[in-house]
UniProtKB/TrEMBL annotation, chains A, B:
CDD domains: CamS_repeat_1 (cd13441), CamS_repeat_2 (cd13440). The keyword Isomerase does not apply. Residues 110-130 are annotated as: Disordered. This is CamS sex pheromone cAM373 family protein. The keyword Signal applies. InterPro entries: CamS.
Amino acid sequence: MKTKWKKVIISTVLLMSTIVLASCGKSSSKDYSTTGSGAGNYQGVIHKGHYRVSKARGVNTGQNSNPYNLKSFESGLTQVSKRVFSTKSYIFQEGQYLDTNTVENWLGRKTKKNPEGLNPAQGKKSNPNPEYVQQIEEQDYMQESGNSMKLKGVTIGIGINSEYNYQKKTDGPNYTKNISNDEVHRQGEIAAQKVLKRLRQNPALKDVPIVIALYKQAPDDSLVGGSFFAYSKNNGDSISSWHDLDYKTAVLPKANGTNNSTTESNQTDNDNFSNFKSQVQNFFPNVSGVTAQAQYDGKSLTGMHITVTTQFYSQTEINSFTQYIARAAKKYLPSGIPIDIKIQSDSQMQSVVYRNNGSDKWQTHIFESY
Amino acid sequence: MKTKWKKVIISTVLLMSTIVLASCGKSSSKDYSTTGSGAGNYQGVIHKGHYRVSKARGVNTGQNSNPYNLKSFESGLTQVSKRVFSTKSYIFQEGQYLDTNTVENWLGRKTKKNPEGLNPAQGKKSNPNPEYVQQIEEQDYMQESGNSMKLKGVTIGIGINSEYNYQKKTDGPNYTKNISNDEVHRQGEIAAQKVLKRLRQNPALKDVPIVIALYKQAPDDSLVGGSFFAYSKNNGDSISSWHDLDYKTAVLPKANGTNNSTTESNQTDNDNFSNFKSQVQNFFPNVSGVTAQAQYDGKSLTGMHITVTTQFYSQTEINSFTQYIARAAKKYLPSGIPIDIKIQSDSQMQSVVYRNNGSDKWQTHIFESY
């Protein structure tokens, strides 16, 4: 082969490689995709094939002695976000601006070493100041812009304690200070103002709308989490105005004589649930446990999570019980709201009967095994 | 009031009471109802408001060291029954004719004290005869007849061990005897003939069709249960003929190099599942575990139970992961068969994605909390 032709071939090969590499670069330059949409739910951001996890991942899991406060805080925060950022126009991203260190410092008490602590200094050990701020979570709301995702809004949830548990001496008896509703509101608003100001100092967060939502934590022994009571949508660095939220959570059936604000529930709802419960609990010779978490918006029941616990002795018992529960649910439980019924034994879920949000059809699924 | 009128009134009142009482008797004489029907499932018998549980309730739960053998035996027995007793014409009742004592005696070894034991005498302790028969279950199939339910058929499942574990000395090392496929079949047929003859001695079971189904138990360390390999439908007191069943169970992904009959699975199914698995397992920075139980009828995959285990750090992670899995399931998993995907952390189920038998639509449900 002549040298001239060799050169041409080599340059052609080189040119082609460059084109191939360039197009590779282009096709992989769209690094973002989403988890796919579900009815009324946000799509989530996937970056280079991996889910983009929170920069403060896991902080709140260590922050809640009552696991119901953790789950309900996070579900509730998404519920509040939907009021401002439509699931059709925005894509959800786990918080990328508050990292583990920052959130842990903010959740601490204010000391010389930790000037950023949102909770007051301890004061006297025999009569300490309560820790008010219990958890903080950031959610980012994005929109696609060419090949990348652009931040278009942030939601911050702040969980405020309704009681403070402490010991006067290490290993001494436990004491509890109740924190009044007014104080929960006041402390939430104070923390919100500080948080907003600090976020605005980050250039990336200078101009996006920041929603701050305030959550009242349930007591440690509650069988249902707390609820959000206010939110504000802010464009500047001071809180614009608060919108009241009237969410309440309750445990059903209502214990006789309980009548405090966090467990308040409509008498009719409670009666309906009690009818459902008595239909279900004597199905087997052994009694089944039947309890529910309920959520209210104002006086309207907006959803229920029911748990039925019993001892099963065969798969056929599970099948029959599940059918029976599906029938009882249709007959006794309120229509038009999302409800799920977990049917379990030994804390293992055996089947589920549910009606999703926006649907009028009950679904049943039994967990079998080959 | 005249005595005559008094008498008339009294007799009228008595007569009316009799009528009322009689009609009370009548209205409560229909003591039976059912659990309600589900698509392709049997209704179950409810008697006076309570589920009619098995007379041998709970015997099999103590009988299986491997819990997968228990669930798969019971689900599989119902699957076999559906071949003979249509879900449209028959109502399911838990077994009422074999009681706890009887089943426990039958499952024992044959001794002087227990002449009814279906398993051979122990023989030498250093080289014992295997126990072949591991579990027995009765299912009754009923039809409504006026105000009561009438027995129209019985199905008996018999589980035969594929291996026998024993110790030569108490607390000594464990030994295992493998039981060949031929021997499993042979022992199953021997036990079936004895069981059929004994059942026919009960006047209530003299004339109904009795289906006997034989199940090969999976080894104790298997991650999937065994499967049914034959059944017979009998009108007399000796086995008429055996129909082969070609069910097989397998665990996916298939471990490299495994190639025995109980874990045999189609290579394409395994590849599809591996694609699904690699899509899912690197979603989070922490790796997720993805395994499946598969059932085959001959060479056709007939269903899968998939379990995805990972550590979640927030409710939003659960929501995003569930959406992503639903999308991957549509893309990678085979169509036309029932599949469920349990998504769990710390052995607690967080959500489920499934397609039921006969449906072409994937369903998603996330377990939230208030």
